[in-house]
Amino acid sequence: MVNDLKKDAANQQTNRPREDPLGNDFEAAQRRSTKPKTVWYDLGMLGAKIAAIALIGVALFTFVYGLHYNLDAGMEPAVRDGDLVVFYRWGTDYRAGDLAVVTYEGQAQVRRVVAVAGDTVDISERGLIINGSLQQERRIFFETVRYADGPELPLTLGPGEIFVLGDARENVADSRIYGAVRSEDTKGSVLSVLRRRNF
Question: For 46, 98, 126, 186, which has the most beta carbons within 10 A of its beta carbon?
C-alpha cells in the first residue's frame, strides 16, 4: 500500500510541468524558444546588424580615420591626382618622411614632412639642407628651389612644428610659401593611398 502511494506520487511528479521556485514554467518557455523564426525576423536581424556595422564605420571615419580625395598633383608620383587617401586623425607625432594632410587656403593637401621640431631648414642652389646636411632624397625626382616670396630661411622649427614639401617640387604650394605648420593644425598622417586611375 505504501509502495503504491509512493509510485502514484512519483507518477504525478513526473507528469507535472517543471517549475522553478519562482513559478516559471520551463517547458512552456522551451516550447516558445523552439518556435520557428519567420523570414521577416531574419531580415530584421540582418538589417539591425548592417545598421550597427554602418554606425561603427561612420564613427570610425568621423573621429579616428579620415578620407581625402586628392585633386592635387603636388605629391606625384607618391600620391597622384585622383587618389583616395586614408589618414589617421590622431597620428600627429610626425617624423621626417611621413605624409601629412594639411590645409592651405581652405583646401586639404598631402605633403611630405621633411623636418620636425628642433630642425633647421634651408634651401640653397644645391637643394634641401636639414641641420647643415644636404638631403639625398631617393623618391624625389624634381629640383628643390627656394621661392622668392616664402618664409625667411634658414628656419629653425619650434616645438610642435613641421616643415612640409610636395614631392613634385616645382610650382607647388608647401612650406616654401606658408612656412612651418603646427602638427595640431594638420588633419592627420597618411596611412594608405588607394589608386583610382593612372595605374
Answer: 186
Q: Tell me the C-alpha distance between 74 and 105, whole Å.
A: 15
Q: Verify cis geometry, omega within 30 degrees of 0, for the bond prior to 36.
A: no
The values of phi and psi at residue 102, to 5°, are -115, 170
* C-alpha separations of 2 from 15, 16, 73, 88, 127 in Å: 20, 21, 99, 81, 110
Show the DSSP H helices in the chain as ranges.
Answer: 2-15, 26-33, 39-63, 175-178
Examine residue 159 and say whether the peptide bond preceding it is cis (omega within 30 degrees of 0). no
Which residue, 196, 38, 40, 185, is CA-closest to 101? 185
How far apart (Å, rounded) are the C-alpha atoms in residues 58 and 64? 10
pLDDT of the chain along its 199 residues, tens only? 545 555 555 555 555 555 555 555 556 656 655 556 688 888 888 888 888 888 887 777 777 899 999 999 999 999 999 999 999 999 889 999 999 999 999 999 999 999 999 999 999 999 999 999 999 988 898 999 999 888 999 999 999 999 999 999 988 999 999 999 999 999 999 999 998 766 5
- β-bridge mates for residue 164, sequence order: 113
